[in-house]
């Protein structure tokens, strides 16, 4: 690491220990993020009235145990006579000394009571909250956490769809969704169950607090963001050396399809001068490029035919025949140039399933029905949790 980068790194680490501000630290594996987190924890610990005021959250028990042990080791070596050798160890030693002084002053006795260090997993924190807030959590007694809650999600989905044959107010909503799915009840059950598995990602966006109506503007914005993000990634992954040739060949193919009076997604590339960008209106062009470059299975085409806007050379003479031969050779070279760009190919294939920029009225009816039914499914799931004394993560 150069001196300038090392100085910048040290400066960033020092700023992250300013407990008056919040930080997001991003760095590669092995760069010392855990050590910095421990230093931040020690810096906070020296300033509180009780160690329980600070909570450090990890994803796994192993990581939580490792961090707690390293904090305790730092405290144990705070008064060690042997001086640290590395700069970061010196910082940790100084921070640990401040905590040791605070420990002696407040009689925390952390060495004898390591459980007072709130270093735990997200799941254990949530379990602690439900134990201490039984009324607000709605559980009462502490529920058992189910590792694989698929059965619960499917049962809640089944109970929701059972409203079709009842006098429940959501029976017509169930009927509308089933009509959209050609009355495939099992498919609907699977879809609702999968949505329940990810309810933390959508529930707060689905229903307006003041009414059961779908916040369509919010959903439209989210769908538009998904499309723009995907197209931005696609644009960035397309190799520069292939851009001009791709645009030229797409325009060539679209022009031939227009002359032949054939309708194809490739037609959106008519007159293309440059590859499309990441705007919503660029989606049809990207889908046209997907149709041009990829098979229905999502792999690169080995060859193109008249169906893709590349008429056979055998049907022409002279300059036109040469033009068609050259176009096919150029396409084969383009395919060869793109063959190693697997991520680009995968994302290009996914443009076929990206949400449209605007939904039709009929589509919105289905979306609104689903948005109205999903909170019912969540309520059914919560009832099921209480009945069985179980809960998912």
Produce the secondary structure layout.
Elements: H1 3-16, H2 33-45, E1 55-58, H3 61-76, H4 87-106, E2 118-121, H5 122-132, H6 134-137, E3 144-145, H7 150-161, H8 171-180, H9 185-197, H10 199-206, H11 216-237, H12 240-260, H13 283-293, H14 318-338, H15 342-350, H16 361-388, E4 390-391
Parallel strand pairs: 1-2, 3-4
Helix pairs in contact: 2-4, 7-9, 7-16, 8-16, 11-15, 12-14
Structure commentary:
α2 packs parallel to α4, α7 packs across α16 and α11 packs antiparallel against α15. The chain is flat, with a radius of gyration of 30 Å. About 2% of the residues have low confidence. The strands form 2 sheets. A two-stranded parallel sheet has the order 1-2. The protein is mainly α. It is built from 16 helices and 4 strands.
Strand element count:
4
| Straight-line N-to-C gap | 42 Å
H/E element order: HHEHHEHHEHHHHHHHHHHE
Q: Average pLDDT value?
A: 86
Structural class: mainly alpha
Tell me the strand order in the biggest sheet. 1-2
Fraction of residues in H or I helices: 55-70%
Strand content: under 5%
Describe the sheet with the most strands.
2 strands, parallel
Low-pLDDT segments, ≥5 res:
209-214
